[in-house]
Design a protein that fits this description.
Layout lengths: L4 E2 L2 H4 L3 H8 L3 E6 L2 E14 L17 H4 L5 E6 L3 E7 L7 E12 L1 H15 L18 H8 L15 E5 L11 E4 L13 E4 L8
Helix pairs in contact: 4-5
This protein binds a DNA duplex through strand 4, strand 5 and helix 5.
Length: 211
DNA sequence: CGTTCGATGCACT
DNA sequence: GTGCATCGAACGT
């Protein structure tokens, strides 16, 4: 197994767009004993400050968005649409609300467990009469709600320290993304405001990137 | 191809 | 009561 290094606090304590760019190709890990799941980050979005209308901090500090105002290198996980959890890495500095939303992974470790979790979740959602299509491996962590499902992440992981907990992001060295496309930038997805800011980054042409 | 829409919980107004 | 940083089935073209 290649050498792996957990990203240090200083990685996150930088301008959010730099962190977002550098997170592409790193590995998001949920290190449950005997059930590790992980994937290479291939799509992210930056949400930066109270001036960003799409950022959860746009209306000021609330109990929900408090982690955004905390120190960098912690997880901000929240529940959305009554269905999905979304995971962010808090960036910048304490008092500067900003984070990077992890939107898609190329499945790496624990792919079988990911398949089970996604299939279970879909069976719960789909009508009993219809037969769900099998989920291709490239789609297991395609989309922010899908990747938290596949990795088994939920509200328990909110506020966890990405530098020292079961939830972390690792650098597996250069070469992880060999043979894949370059990083592209464009407008963020699924928001109605702040579309003029091209703060979504993804690996061009990668099959695990959301659409 | 494209668009619509239901499922579902909760923070915030 | 409203509106989501979603997903994917179902339907129209």
């Amino acid at each position: 197994m290649a050498r792996r290094r957990t990203l240090p606090r200083a990685f996150y304590a930088r301008p959010t767009l730099e962190v977002a760019a550098d997170l592409i190709g790193k590995v998001l890990v949920h290190d449950e004993p005997g059930a590790r799941t992980s994937g290479v980050i291939v799509e992210v979005e930056a949400y930066i400050g109270e001036d960003d209308p799409a950022c959860h901090a746009a209306s000021g500090r609330t109990p929900r968005n408090a982690p955004l105002y905390g120190p960098p290198g912690f997880a901000y996980v929240y529940f959305n649409y009554g269905v999905h959890y979304l995971v962010n890495a808090v960036t910048e500095a304490e008092g500067h609300p900003a984070a990077v939303l992890i939107r898609a992974l190329a499945p790496f470790e624990g792919v079988g467990l990911m398949r089970e979790r996604r299939a279970d979740a879909r069976r719960r959602l789909v009508k009993a009469a219809s037969v769900p299509r099998p989920i291709p491996d490239a789609a297991l962590c395609r989309g922010p709600g899908n990747l938290t499902c596949a990795l088994g992440l939920d509200a328990r992981h909110n506020r966890l320290d990405l530098v020292a907990s079961v939830l972390r992001i690792e650098d597996h060295g250069p070469g992880v993304l060999d043979g894949l496309g370059p990083v592209a930038w464009g407008p963020r997805i699924g928001i109605r405001v702040g579309l003029e800011r091209p703060w979504r980054a993804w690996v061009a042409g990668h099959p695990s990137v959301s659409r």
